[in-house]
Amino acid sequence: MVNHLFQNNLNKIKDIPTLSNDGFKIIMSYYDPIEYSKKNFNDFYIHGLSDKTYEIKIPLPPHRQTNNSIILVTKGSLVSSSGFDNFKIDQNSMIVVPAGQITSLLSMSSNIEGYYLHFGTNYLSQTNLDFSDWLTRPVIRFKKDEVKHLTTLLHRMQRLNERGVNTAILKLYLKTFLAEMKQSIDFQMRMNLPAHERITIDFKKLLNYNIRNHQSAGFYAEKLHITTNHLNKSVKATLRRSASSLIDETLVVEAKIVMQESRASISEVAFELGFHDPSYFGRFFKKHTGFVPNEYRKMIELSE
Hints:
Blueprint: H1 4-8, E1 18-19, E2 28-31, E3 44-48, E4 54-56, E5 60-65, E6 68-75, E7 78-82, E8 85-89, E9 93-97, E10 102-108, E11 113-119, E12 139-141, H2 144-163, H3 167-183, H4 185-189, H5 195-210, H6 217-223, H7 228-239, H8 243-261, H9 266-272, H10 278-289, H11 293-302
Parallel strand pairs: 1-5
Antiparallel strand pairs: 2-4, 3-11, 5-10, 6-9, 6-11, 7-8, 7-10, 9-12
Helix pairs in contact: 2-3, 5-7, 6-7, 9-10
């Protein structure tokens, strides 16, 4: 069935954006135009979670972002998703969502404190930190002293960004921040991922960019230079579900995004997603959501 929170809040949000360019502002019900109209907004931005300069539409349905994003919580908690799984981010925890990943924000406590930042994939030309490592483990937890170092750097980056300083200085601070992340105990523990988890991460990377054209587990297994059976075993060992089920889940989200971002006919949506038979697409969508495509689209139209 469609996420319960999403159903209850369709009347608040008209569409699911892909957060490119100034798309981040689309998810805000209020923001300070001076604060959020800086020239480098799409390359780099940071704000405090308790700042009064913005208000986010919550719950925020799934969307795909084009920048890497990081949320560090120092007080309170929030519930965010990465891919198809929800994660509670509480005190001294962080969630990292790489560019291209599907994400959403489901809730945020009233006493929330911490920082949000995003930066483009090309903002740092030289860094060996691969954010795709967070595709299966997006949350990292810190010790108190580790958080102290990180928040000092984040606070400094926010002040510098507000002043519009030279981008090179911000990049140095961001590189230092990422280096501190890598030195944390929790991060060090994940450096040597088991083979099945590494395969699953690479599989999810490929899914993010190929799902509309390829829905066969065999295609992804071939790209990864392994057998389909090996791919299935690896995904099951990591996520406790098959590669095919992950493909189906990704395809359902893509279908929702297409139906909410465009007014194409259901047949056109089906063809765009690689279904040669619109009737089969309808049965597939209902199986995974409980609604036929036209019913889902009517829900969207009623919210406008």
